[in-house]
Each structure stands twice: as C-alpha cells, then as structure tokens.
Design a protein that fits this description.
This protein has helices at about 10-15, 15-30, 35-50, 60-70, 90-95, 120, 140-150, 200-210, 235-245, 245-265, 290-300, 330-335, 350-360, 365-370; strands at about 55-60, 80-85, 100-105, 125-130, 155-160, 165, 170, 175-180, 195-200, 275-280, 285, 335-340. With about 375 residues, it is an alpha/beta fold. It folds into 2 domains: about 10-105 and about 110-245, Aspartate Aminotransferase, domain 2 (3-Layer(aba) Sandwich); about 245-365, Alpha-Beta Complex (Aspartate Aminotransferase, domain 1). The protein has a 7-stranded mixed β-sheet, with helices on both faces. A 3-stranded antiparallel β-sheet has the order 7-6-10, with no helix packed on it. A two-stranded antiparallel ribbon has the order 11-12. The two termini are about 25 Å apart. The relative contact order is 0.16.
C-alpha cells in the first residue's frame, strides 16, 4: 500500500506548471531579477487580499520579524514578550535584533499565547508583544491590542503560518505590523524563500523598503543602516500565480479539517474551531497523551505525521539563558501534539486511511465502532 506523505510539493505544483514556466520566461526576458515589476505588483495584490494599508516584501519570514523589530527601534536592552510554542525563528528574530525574549505560557485549548498572562510579564523594558498565529489558528487579538494601545508597546504579529486566516472577518496581521513567510512548506508559498510585512502607514512602508535594501534612498545614497532582504522577481511572479488559487487551497484544507473533526471526535483532542474563524490549517494538530505510540502506529500503517514542535523555544540550548519562568502548559502540550496530513492534495481515500489508522491505533477501529 502506498505511503501517505505529509505533504507532496510536486503534486501541488503540477497543475500550475505551465503558468509558473511563463513567469520564468517573462523574468528571463526583462532581466530585472531583484525587485522587478512583479514585486510591486505582488505587494499591491497582497495588500488588497489581506486588508492591509500596504505590504512590503522581503527575503524570508524571519527577515520580516527582524525588520519589524528594527522598524520600531527595538534592540539591545529591550524586551519582547512572545510564546515559546512556535518555530525557533520567532525567538531567533528577537535575538538577531539584539533584544531579549520574554516567554509567556499558552492557552491550553488554543495553544497560542495566553493574553491573560501578558500584563504580569510587562516591565519597564518591554517594547513589543509578538503573538504567533500557530498552525494557522487566528488568535483573538482584541486583548493584546488593548494592552498595546494602553501602554504604547508595539504589536508585531507572527503570521508565518497563517496567511489567509481571519477572525471575525478581519485578516491576521492587520493590527499594527504583521509578518508572513513564503517558505515552500507554507500554504501560500514561493518556489524558494520569501516573506512580507503588512503595515498601516505609508511612512512605515517607505522605511521598510529602505531597511530591506541596505537603507538606500536611491542607487547611491543611504540614510539608515539596512540589510539585503529583497524578494526575487521570479518568486514574486510565482506567488502571483499561486494567489489566484489560494482560496481554493484553503477551502480544500478546511474541508479536510472538517472531516477530521467529524470522524475523530472523542478519540483525540482536536484543534479549536468556530463559526467566526477562518483557519488556513497550515497544520492539523491533534493531541493525545500517548503521542509517540500513536505516531509509531501511524508510521507502521504508511501514514506520515509530524510534530510541530518537539521542543519549545525556551528548551532549545541557544535559549536556555532566557528560560526565566516555568511554562507548564507549553511543556505539557508539546508532549501531546501530532500533525496529520491535511494538504489540498490529500485524496478522500487517503484521508480515510489516515482516520482509520488513528482509530485502529487507539483501539477504535471499524471492527469496534459498531454499525
């Protein structure tokens, strides 16, 4: 029986092959390989799609986070409140800016930053709060927005996994600064790397465009110290092609997620859902106390699964010095989480095999379900 892969990038790109090759030919013909016309065209389209004042592209999602911190003047001596339950890039960006990460525990149900715990973590050195919309789940930004409005602290949303996710009709990344990744494993992905930031003012957008390009005002003059984080024209063109079908991708993943919710209810802890949520399901994360046994059983059945992530950021050796407080919910959750295949390319038959493999592993297979 064929193995069910967690993700199949060749299958994702095959229907778009001819259009992607047309982009390749067009960029080769005009020769503006970096920050060419495709880049600004993409930025305009992304701003409209996300509901943002402006979008500035950059070289990666990590660069987007670093540029956001630089934009707000955050550096050595400053603290940034964030979650340890995320990909390590969230913490790395804070260190790369020279600031200090302050990790706050997560909510047990949603697995994202617990806003109720944030006020107690604020000090006179706190300059930003960086929530993460993990697994595509759009967290409730209302409480954090209120805190930032009251204190003047910057709000920087890590939306790397949540492009296209919305809550109460509002897209993620539209409260102050939003940071997105176009890594190939993301739902909205380049055929390489890339990222972008959403901002709410023309001044911020112009500053970011200088910061991403060595601080240059024009070809020969720089007024701030910047970096080289420019999006390739080829990748921008590829992304424009994919933007045309993004809603279809998300709808397919939502349909797969709905089926998991219907078939696995009562067997495992399922991710949250709600009528006012549009989750892109960058990962469909179930939870079970015997995670490793379940994962091994799935592998034996030919089902690939992942753990996002087996270590919290504060447990990584590079961050041991920043493990200022106990994070009991985070540390419990990371021992239970398991990501099931949920991509748009997953067939109904393959998903049925995944469901049956989970049920059988937990002693709830077809033979024990009854009629």
């Amino acid at each position: 029986m064929a193995r069910i892969n967690y993700i199949d990038l060749p299958a994702k790109h095959e229907p778009l092959r001819e259009r992607l090759l047309q982009v390749f030919d067009r960029v080769l013909a005009h020769g503006q390989f970096v920050l060419g016309p495709e880049v600004r065209e993409l930025e305009v389209r992304l701003a409209k799609y996300l509901g943002a004042r402006d979008v500035v592209t950059c070289g990666s999602g990590t660069d987007a986070l670093v540029l956001a911190l630089r934009l707000r003047g955050i550096g050595p001596g400053d603290e940034v409140i964030t979650t340890a339950h995320s990909f390590i890039a969230t913490g790395n960006a804070i260190l790369l800016a020279g600031a200090t990460p302050v990790f706050v525990d997560i909510d047990s149900d949603t697995m994202v930053l617990d806003a109720a715990l944030v006020p107690a973590a604020i000090t006179e050195r706190t300059r930003a709060i960086m929530p993460v919309h993990l697994n595509g789940f759009p967290m409730d930004m209302g409480p954090l927005s209120a805190i930032c409005d009251d204190t003047g602290i910057a709000l920087i949303e890590d939306c790397a996994q949540a492009f296209g996710s919305r809550r109460d009709g509002r897209g993620v990344g539209t409260h102050d600064i939003g940071c997105f990744s176009f890594h190939p494993l993301k739902i909205f992905s380049a055929c390489g790397d890339g990222g972008c930031l959403t901002v709410s003012s023309e001044e911020d957008a112009e500053t970011l465009r200088r910061l991403r390009n060595h601080g240059l005002i024009d070809r020969d003059h720089s007024d701030i110290a910047g970096v080289n984080s420019r999006l390739d024209s080829m990748q921008a063109g590829f992304l424009s092609v994919k933007l045309d079908v993004l809603d279809d991708y998300i709808a397919a993943r939502q349909a797969n997620a709905d089926r998991y919710h219907a078939e696995l209810a009562g067997l495992v802890t399922l991710p949250p859902k709600g009528i006012d949520l549009r989750c892109n399901h960058s990962a469909f994360v179930i939870r079970h106390q015997e995670r490793e046994q379940l994962r091994s059983s799935l592998a034996a059945s030919g089902v690939d699964s992942k753990v996002h992530y087996p270590l919290a950021i504060h447990q990584q050796p590079a961050f041991a010095v920043f493990a200022q407080r106990s994070l009991p919910v985070t540390e419990r959750v990371i021992g239970e989480i398991l990501s099931l295949p949920v991509s748009a390319e997953l067939s109904a038959e393959e998903q049925e095999r995944v469901i049956e493999a989970v049920a059988c592993s937990l002693g709830k297979g077809a033979e024990s379900k009854g009629p």
